[in-house]
Amino acid sequence: MRELDGSDAGGQFLRTALTLSVLENEPVRLEHVRGDRPNPGLANQHLAVLETLAAVTDAEVSGGELDAETVEFEPGRSSTGGLEGGSYAVDIGTAGSVTLLFDALLPLATVLEAPLSVTATGGTDVEWSPPLDYLRQVKLPLLGAHGLVASCEVDRRGFYPNGGGRATLRIAPSSLEPLALERRSELEGVRLYSTESASLADQDVAHRQLEGALERLDLAGADRNVDDGSNEDDQLEVLERQERTAESPSPGSALVIRVDHGTGIAGFDALGERGKPAERVGEDAADAANRFLEGDAPVDRHMGDQLLVFLALAGGRVRIPRVSDHVETSRALLEAFGREIDLERREEGAVVSRSPDPP
């Protein structure tokens, strides 16, 4: 049983360790779970990930309870080494993140023998996690271009504090292609996805968020730092704009901006807060997008963190905007499982890479 220490890490370390345990079909013991958090141990959303992966893989688990700081996980994959798939449901019980649960499941596509469907109830658009539209409109399309077959359907949005959202992730057996995301090529345009709970519809929150973003976005006359051999200043086109009113047990809102370019996709988001004007929500997301446009990385900083597991599985090269603590922690964890990720630092950010495993 591989022993791992989470003293200096948070929930991402736990999720990635459990996912790698399944992929490598290797038992793990995690000590000091979420040790660098003020409230260490398993919270509801971390317990939901543990229980879901245990159900999907028929794993044996020790320490599967709230606040547990030591967990043992032994996956029970079939004799052929694959996962049987099937349909599962999980209720996080709080506004814990549905999208982070789904993130832990996505890499399993590489070892599935049949489709997998997981319906989760919890927070779909909450702090410290990707909003649902980031998953649906940014991450899944980007990974889909590299061979991942997955989709996400939403039944109800769940904002803080009540959660209560419900979404279903469907994954099919997939063969990933090496990630080719080292350079940003010609910019194609932006897409905006603005959502409000039904309780905020009379305040036009979704529309105001979108308008605030469009007013702040730098769509014209700037050096786009693209690798297309052209120095021309072009107007960045608005390819899509969506405003949605959604049922939810809690009032809330979210905005996601997607930037499309020839070799990839980047995403930027902001959530509504009590007392925060809707226009400011849009401006915050636009400010992040503008910072991306001033640089030359092909993916946003959050995606740079999230792609490391897929890079370890498929190989390739990815230019990331910065080397965050999450990147460093994930690299060390992947190395512990024998999947080293090379890092070449640049003046801004770095290139992370790995050679594909032999057939």
Automatic annotation (TrEMBL):
Pfam family, one: RTC_insert
Alphabetical GO biological process terms: RNA processing
Enzyme class: ligase
Catalysed reaction, written as an equation: a 3'-end 3'-phospho-ribonucleotide-RNA + ATP = a 3'-end 2',3'-cyclophospho-ribonucleotide-RNA + AMP + diphosphate
Keyword flag Nucleotide-binding: yes
EC code: 6.5.1.4
Organism name: Natronococcus amylolyticus DSM 10524
Domain RNA 3'-terminal phosphate cyclase: from-to ranges: 9-337
Entry's family note: Belongs to the RNA 3'-terminal cyclase family. Type 1 subfamily.
Domain (RNA 3'-terminal phosphate cyclase insert) ranges: 184-293
GO cellular component, one term: cytoplasm
The protein's name in its UniProt record: RNA 3'-terminal phosphate cyclase
